[in-house]
Each structure stands twice: as C-alpha cells, then as structure tokens.
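Annotated sample (chain length 82).
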Amino acid sequence: MIEKEDAKKVVEVIGNNLIGVSHDANNFQKLPDSFWGYFARGHDKKGAFAVIMTYSENQEDVDNLIKMYEEWVAKNKNKESE
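Output written by the structure step:
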C-alpha cells in the first residue's frame, strides 16, 4: 500500500506536470484521435516513481498497455531479488 505522503507527492507531480503540458498547445499537436498517453516521472526521499496516463477509444488498447506494464514489473522485480 502506498503511504499517505507518497500518495500526496504522486498527485502533486501529476498535477504540476499536466499544468505544464497544458500551457503549450504544441504538446497536443498530432495526437491520434483514438489513442494517446502521457508519462510523468517524479522523485521523493525514498526513491522514484512514475505515472502513466493513457486514453483510448478502444478499451483493449488500455488493457494491453496495463498488461505490458505488469509483465515488465514482474520481470524486473524478479531480477532485483536474484
């Protein structure tokens, strides 16, 4: 479970990154109408974290992205324990 302060930091980083992105219309040029994603990375005293936000008119796109991420996490988590 994520700790209260970590959760606060995650929301703060997402908000600040999205505000920065929203100030420049060029960030939204040539985005596909049906699928796009946004990645934010932040750091705290305990390490680093990342947030991936995605949108798709096709739910399968989002499900596949989440599945790919979960597989990557499982693969890399096993490497750490070796």
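Annotation: Residues 4-81 form one domain.
Annotation: The mean pLDDT is 77.
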